[in-house]
TrEMBL record:
Record keywords: ATP-binding, Cell membrane, Membrane, Nucleotide-binding, Transmembrane, Transmembrane helix, Transport
GO MF assignments: ABC-type oligopeptide transporter activity; ATP binding; ATP hydrolysis activity
Gene Ontology cellular-component annotations: plasma membrane
Keyword Transmembrane helix tagged: yes
Membrane-topology annotation of the record: Multi-pass membrane protein
Protein name (record): ABC transporter
PROSITE patterns: ABC_TM1F, ABC_TRANSPORTER_1, ABC_TRANSPORTER_2
InterPro entries named among the record's database cross-references: AAA+_ATPase, ABC1_TM_dom, ABC1_TM_sf, ABC_transporter-like_ATP-bd, ABC_transporter-like_CS, P-loop_NTPase, Type_1_exporter
Domain spans labelled ABC transmembrane type-1: 47-332
Species in which this protein is naturally found: Eisenbergiella tayi
Length: 608
């Protein structure tokens, strides 16, 4: 029984290994088919490339035959050389080689054009895919790794399409044509390749099977390295404030070394293929020379035929050797394409239900009833959350870190869908409201400011009227900036509202950036506002002015405020105290202070 169980385990292990290998092979074939699908968008370009490839290689294949004729025109003995025939064949050789070179040049230009179009389409598809992915995808994937896929991986595919595809087409046509010509010259001498070709194929298959996982690992390690660098670059101030330069360098060295080793292993083992195949090809040339000489001695071949056969053998084995040399590049591009297609295959944000309706002119009545939510099936963040917010009220959400405050905002915006319960806006369940119309009903300001490279005016008017092609009145923008307390600062800039914001250009503090995002939110025609720690980077005096301006501008609108600093939400109509995913207290500031609860403890901790 013991031995039988062990045998079954080994059999199961072998089957799992076989299934895994078959899955990898299917994945590789699927990747190649999908790349072919991109190429087929430009089938007429491909047809022209195929014709140029055939023409270039056929003209090049005529040369060795004419060379043999020229050699045979040289007869032994003085005065027996017929130079006119030699020059005749040589002239035609030059013509054919020139035409072949012209076709080859046109082919290269055409393939660069095709690869440029394919990469443009692929990069566009990846970027559009990123915009259709749920927010949860970006919460669990490093920005650097995503950027690596849209830049490095696509560039790797681009290089392969523009160079390697041409080489493969050339190899197929040249090898086929050279083989036919060798058979016509001497079928017996072709038998040499019956020994060398299987040997070359076995070596190539074995080595490529070993190197393919190494190139996958290389792309993955490079993505990890890019992700780490992106994190460290964006966190420079924190890094230096905590004096973590040496530790960060050590971590970078570790990740850089892993990426370097992965790169070295892939390139090292990939580079073995070329020399091994080249050795086999040189072996075949040696055998052809020996057996060709024997056939010549027995009068079965002329010197010209031997010369032509040797040239054709080089054309036969040369492209195979070159193809073997680009195996590493192909493996790298396939690994890169797999990473790209894995991103393209990620599930998109669920589409709206067929019976979904648009939320037009929302009043701001929000009700959560017995909401349950967790980011995964293991841990539930919100257990049983219920509250009702009437239109035009200012709602503050407070609580300790990890209580579920930001999660609540994610649910209101439908960045995530709840697992149980319901969320209603104006009496409509949000699951029956289109995401676009729901999100347009909110104006949102986050703690992490986001401004793009462009003028201050463009940043403030961003999204207000559905596109930058529509111009918003400058006076409206100035009114919002003045209400946010940032107008005076903007006017003091060199170009005022036309000043271009760049990372290394205008010196704008984090607090001023936050004021700009608040002014931007004021311009949105939304009836509900979300402020997620929006005043955390603003000094207390400016904060009070913003609160006064916000109350005037948001009159009649529902406003959700998440704040740790309780001084900013004392005037809120309702304060919801959230702890462990549940509302444990609710009421006005005065009401909650009179109660001996969590809110009073938090307030005393801040002001005593």
């Amino acid at each position: 029984m013991k031995w039988g169980g062990k045998g079954k385990q080994e059999e199961k292990g072998k089957q799992e290994k076989k299934d895994k290998q078959e899955k990898k092979e299917r994945g590789k074939k699927g990747t190649l088919l999908r790349l072919g699908g991109y190429l087929m968008h430009y089938k007429w370009y491909l047809a022209a490339a195929l014709l140029l490839t055939v023409g270039s290689n056929l003209f090049a294949l005529i040369g060795p035959m004419l060379s043999g004729y020229a050699v045979d025109a040289i007869e032994p003995g003085p005065g027996r050389v017929i130079f006119s025939r030699v020059f005749y064949y040589a002239a035609w050789m030059a013509v054919f080689y020139v035409v072949s070179s012209v076709f080859s040049y046109l082919l290269q230009v055409l393939m660069i054009t095709i690869s440029r179009k394919v990469v443009y389409r692929m990069r566009r598809d990846v970027f559009e895919k990123l915009l259709s992915l749920p927010v949860g995808y970006f919460d669990v994937h490093q920005s650097g790794d995503i950027i690596s896929r849209i830049s490095y991986d696509i560039d790797t595919v681009n290089a392969s399409l523009s160079d390697d595809v041409v080489q493969l087409l050339t190899t197929v046509i040249t090898v086929s044509g050279a083989f036919v010509m060798m058979v016509l010259i001497s079928p017996r001498l072709v038998l040499v390749f019956a020994f060398t070709m299987p040997l070359s194929i076995c070596i190539t298959r074995y080595l490529t099977g070993k190197t393919r996982p190494l190139f996958r690992e290389r792309s993955a390690k490079l993505g990890e390295l890019n992700g780490f660098v992106e994190e460290m670059v964006s966190g420079q101030k924190t890094l230096r404030a905590y004096c973590q330069e040496d530790h960060t360098i050590d971590r970078f060295e570790e990740k850089n070394e892993k990426a370097m080793k992965a790169y070295y292993r892939a390139e090292y083992y990939g580079s073995i293929v070329g020399p091994m195949v080249n050795f086999v090809n040189n072996l075949s040339l040696s055998l052809i020379s020996v057996f060709g000489a024997v056939l010549y001695l027995f009068g079965s071949m002329s010197i010209g035929n031997i010369s032509s056969f040797v040239l054709y053998s080089r054309k036969f084995s040369g492209p195979i050797n070159e193809a073997a040399n680009i195996i590493s590049d192909l493996q790298s591009s396939i690994a890169a394409a797999e990473r790209i297609f894995r991103l393209l295959d990620e599930p998109e944000e669920p589409v709206d239900a067929p019976d979904s309706m648009e939320l037009k002119q929302a009043e701001g009545d929000v009700e959560l009833s017995h909401v349950k939510f967790g980011y995964n099936s293991v841990k539930t963040i919100i257990h049983d959350l219920s509250f009702h917010v009437k239109p035009g009220k200012m709602i503050a959400v407070v609580g300790p870190t990890g209580a579920g405050k930001t999660t609540l905002i994610n649910l209101l915006m439908r960045f995530y869908d709840i697992q149980d319960g319901s969320i209603c806006v104006d009496g409509m369940n949000v699951s029956r409201i289109t995401r676009e119309s729901l999100r347009k009903s909110y104006a949102m300001v986050l703690q992490d400011t986001w401004l793009f490279q462009g003028s201050i005016y463009e940043n403030l008017a961003y999204g207000s009227l559905g596109g930058m092609e529509q111009k918003m009145e400058v006076e409206r923008v100035r009114e919002a900036a003045e209400a946010a307390g940032i107008d005076g600062f903007i006017r003091r800039l060199p170009q005022g509202y036309d000043t271009i914001l760049t990372d290394e250009g205008t010196n704008i503090s984090k607090g001023q950036k936050q004021l700009l995002t608040i002014a931007r939110a004021m311009l949105l025609p939304a009836r509900m506002l979300i402020l997620d720690e929006a005043t955390s980077n603003v000094d207390t005096r400016t904060e009070m002015k913003i609160q006064e301006a916000m109350r005037k501008l948001m009159e009649g609108k529902t406003c959700f405020i998440i704040a740790h600093r309780l001084s900013t939400i004392q005037n809120a109509d309702i304060i919801l105290v959230v702890n462990d995913g549940d509302v444990v207290q609710q009421g006005t500031h005065e009401e909650l202070i009179r109660q001996d609860g969590l809110y009073r403890q938090m307030y005393l901790a801040q002001f005593e």
